[in-house]
Amino acid sequence: MSKAPGPTPTPWHLSNQFLGLVLLSALIALFVSIYTSDWASEIQMDRFQLGFFPLVGVVWMMIAALMLVVDHARKKEFGEIEEIRPGSWPWIIGLSVAWYAYAQLVLYLGFILTTFLFISILLRIGGVQSWKTIAGAGALCVVVVFLLFFAIGVDLPTGRVWS
User: Fold this and answer.
1) Which pTM does this prediction carry?
2) Is residue 103 part of a domain?
3) Which residue of 3, 7, 30, 103 is most buried, as measured by CB atoms within 10 A?
4) Are 101 and 30 contained in the same domain?
């Protein structure tokens, strides 16, 4: 009698545990970078340090990454790995460059215009066809985020063009 072959084990470099360790390493580096930066210790009007919320966000992401390392599914294959292939890299690099461009343009054009343009472009790339829908969703997002920050007393950048 021959035994039926069992499922083949997932290679470690494709496991949740490996992904969790990679993410945890990157997040530790990000935490140290933020913590040691000059701006993180600046005290704001609300008596919080400027780096407090970014550090809290990084800690929560570190907890999630650690869960990938130790949970019961740590040896399972993560996600749809076959969807990430060499043809995906232009999109990954393109989005990274777009976020960098957004961060730079916010300083130059201000939050309202840059965010509206960025959201509109993302919606168009994402497949939304109607320019009315794109403009409405972009404007709604900008207004909601602006009002949330206004409510907590944070001035969003107006940009050098308008200053």
Assistant:
1) 0.54
2) yes
3) 30
4) no
